[in-house]
Give the backbone structure.
Amino acid sequence: MQEGIKIFMLCKHTQKLCLLVCLLVGAFVACGVFPAVSNNGISTNTPDIARVGNALNVWQQAAPGVELRYEYWKSPSPSGDTVVITRFDLHRIHLKVEYQPAQPMMLSKWLAQEHAIAAINGGYFDAQNNATALVISDGRAYGTSYDGFGGMLAVDAQGNVNLRSLHQQAYDANNEQLQQATQSAPLLVLNGKRTQFSANAASQRRSIVAMDKQGRLLLIVSPLAAFTLDELADLLVSSDLSIDTALNLDGGSSTGLYLKAGKQYVTIDSLTALPLVIVLE
């Protein structure tokens, strides 16, 4: 009988202890006390950007010619994400394409090396870190241009920045003196309308470079695996961003965006080392 009472009391104390532990864990999670889980030093969780004090759907001036905005986009499926949008006056920034297949780096390392205002991942690359399309960095060309598909972000010898369809205007190595360029696919928006393309239906982290109808450059990132490319194209044209042309960049683990301008910081690191990045100075 006494043994039974002891067991009963032990169970009762155990229940109380479990309840106390659950309450403490809940309080720690709510307050953000637990650190982000990491893998090889790379954060594997994505913060709720809106929760940490950034207003949605409002342009914030980070520096002259540099603006930042957060929007919550939702796909027809249950998934959604807080999308980070940066916008640049091309008269106030200098765009470069950096390429070093022999020494790829995390996007955070690229930003530190270049001392840039912003950086985003570039186009696709293979297992050997070689670009799968044309890259031009400081006037030196690498790889082969896409033929009849995709798009190209380029800077000419006069410093003019252009984002174009390679189906409409193919790259001409004999007559174009480009200083910087990166190609990717698919082109999502052209002349303010979404394009038609074939793509798998997987949702991935996404990186976009775009030009609006006022001639400004936009870098757009969805840090969660929330959207297919078809969904993203629809969301871009239905937004109030006045987008004229938008090009999908290498997504998934390559997706990353850094901004350091004034008091505004965006730190979305890539999950893999990158041989190819777009840098704004």
Residues 1-14, 16-52 have pLDDT under 50 and may be disordered. Residues 61 and 272 are 30 Å apart (CA to CA). Helices lie at 2-31, 107-114, 229-238.
